[in-house]
Amino acid sequence: MKVAAVLLAAGRSDRFTDGDKLAALLGDLPLGLHAARTLTSLPLDRHIVVTGSGGMAWPDFTVVPNDRRDAGMAKSIALGVSAARRADIDAVLIALADMPFVSVAHLERLVARYRGPDTMVASSDGIFRMPPALFGATWFDTLETLSNDRGARAILEQAEIVLANPAELQDVDRVADLEAAKGRFPE
């Protein structure tokens, strides 16, 4: 099985009032690179990042620009899945760049649940289904035709789940979230 990581990093960060949140430091790294580092530690076949404007470097990732950030997360998902499809990938592991606490072990559990092209596995905090999520190739057409800012949330309701500690699935949306996260990544 060939799996590509698709890291979504093109959000507008409307709730973050202090510049580019993915470039904001969290410990010794920009926020967005925590998720990137975790993904590159997995032995996946391809690492793709969908980005908006900005000059942040994404080492070890194929960068796919999203010049339609106003189209919402669905556009980023479509671009990432399309890039993976061109690389003859069997499944995509979609993750968000503003989720710095997701562990390698959790991502490995998601990938281990692959059972063929119909696979759809989402993370869960015990209440909600959410990214990171793994989609087999049967889902690529659906993912490429999503159209909203809710991403794949509606289809994740059908997904099998892999539980994670809720703290692992926290994202950073606001400056206050970043400040709280700094306690987990000391300078």
TrEMBL record:
Q: Known CDD domains for this protein?
A: GT_2_like_f
Q: Where is the MobA-like NTP transferase domain?
A: 5-159
Q: Which InterPro entries match?
A: MobA-like_NTP_Trfase (IPR025877), Nucleotide-diphossugar_trans (IPR029044)
Native source organism of the sequence: Sphingomonas chungangi
GO MF term list: nucleotidyltransferase activity
Which keywords does UniProt give here?
Answer: Magnesium, Transferase
The record ties this protein, via SUPFAM superfamilies, to:
Nucleotide-diphospho-sugar transferases
The protein's name in its UniProt record: Nucleotidyltransferase family protein
